[in-house]
Amino acid sequence: MIVDSLANSDKYVSLHPRFAKAFEFIKSQNLESIEVGKYPIDGAELHASVSNKDGVKAEDAKFEAHNHFIDIQVCPAGSEQIGWKPRSKCVDPKGDYNAEKDVTFFNDKPDTYFSLNAGQFAIFYPEDVHAPMIGEGPVKKLVVKVKI
Length: 148
What we know:
Layout: E1 2-5, H1 19-28, E2 37-40, E3 46-54, E4 64-65, E5 69-74, E6 79-86, E7 104-105, E8 112-117, E9 120-124, E10 128-134, E11 138-147
Antiparallel strand pairs: 1-9, 2-3, 3-11, 4-7, 5-9, 5-11, 6-8, 6-10
């Protein structure tokens, strides 16, 4: 997992061949006014979605991991809490892996929580189980999915 400011995103473009294009997309958007919806960037291998949903309590957050995509998550405005735990320490899957949605949910609980604020991003690799959307009131979220 990586958490940093969007101002530092150039430091991470060498970590994956599609990161440069992903961060270019993010930085080209007016994050405060970006509309809810799906945004194709580079076919099925790089795409984004924006949601605006009510935040949830930490104990109700979906604790998830992906096998074939890296998430770059951005909080366009305000802040949200996110839970995290290494996948190697998660022992209680909640159902089977959903290949269509590339997600496995877990009953385990996060080891740590952090705030993701406007102007920041988090990168979650397949080994990062994460519980996003923790907060009160509406939480606006931009997620760029990067095919491994």
